[in-house]
Design a protein that fits this description.
The protein has 242 residues and is an alpha/beta fold. It is built from nine helices and six strands; from the N terminus they run αβαβαβαβαβααβαα.
């Protein structure tokens, strides 16, 4: 909606065709822009190349890598196939699509990229080990290429929200715990999106919405990693278990 409000044409990619069509109808009812839908499973191999080819040479001024999900449980018990999908989505698709779009952005000297990470990027996460690790990858990757792109006219922003009132809890808990049991500091998704969008437009590299989340992102600097890891485990056990 924020891009549409500013007059950008949109290319929306997702595995759920019905939800894409619903989003298209809602946006089109408010803003006179062009909207292209691409129905693809972003967790599959080489999907970034397929999406890029579907653009048919259209110029991409803004790329937002927003798709993601989490998996809860001890690493030795969790479903490896599901974890591969998550790693493909968070790491491979995000990285490959960024690379494909970035070459053209650099060549013309303009463009903006927004990658969705998480407050989870700043510390290890027992019981969601690969989710936390993949979000740390997105943060590190985004910061590194943002530095490489200084002076190019292209910016990279990494959005790192804390708990947000979305369907994430239901998905990560496989429906067992549909709501966050720790309700403290849960953000509005529209406010988080606006914060990230504004940070991207300003060319900010790391965007952490909320003063409490900013403080929590720095906490591992002041306590041992062992202590930080133990605290995160307690939070996960409280928040995710039935």
């Amino acid at each position: 909606m924020l891009l549409a409000k500013d007059g950008y044409d949109l290319i929306l990619a997702d595995v759920d065709a019905e939800k894409l069509q619903t989003a298209q109808a809602e946006i089109a009812s408010q803003y006179p822009i062009k909207i292209q839908l691409i129905v693809k499973d972003l967790s599959q191999n080489n999907v970034a190349e397929q999406i890029f080819q579907a653009l048919e040479g259209r110029t991409v001024d803004v790329l937002i890598n927003n798709a993601g999900f989490g998996i809860f449980g001890s690493f030795h018990d969790t479903d490896w196939r599901r974890e591969v999908d998550m790693l493909n989505l968070h790491v491979m698709t995000t990285t490959h699509l960024t690379k494909l779009v970035l070459k053209e952005m650099v060549a013309r000297g303009s463009g903006k990229i927004l990658n969705m990470s998480s407050l989870a990027a700043f510390q290890p996460g027992p019981l969601m080990s690969l989710y936390y690790a993949s979000k740390a990858y997105i943060l590190s990757f985004s910061e590194a290429i943002a530095n490489e792109l200084k002076g190019s006219g292209v910016t990279v922003t990494c959005l790192c929200p804390g708990q947000t009132n979305t369907c994430f809890q239901k998905v990560v808990s496989n429906g067992a715990a549909s709501e966050n049991k720790i309700s403290f500091n849960i953000a509005c998704p529209k406010k988080v999106a606006k914060y990230g969008y504004d940070a991207m437009q300003k060319g900010k590299v790391v965007a952490i919405p909320g003063n409490i989340n900013k403080f929590l992102s720095k906490l591992p600097r002041f306590v041992s990693r062992r202590t930080a890891t133990a605290v995160i485990r307690r939070i996960q056990e409280k928040n995710r278990r039935v």
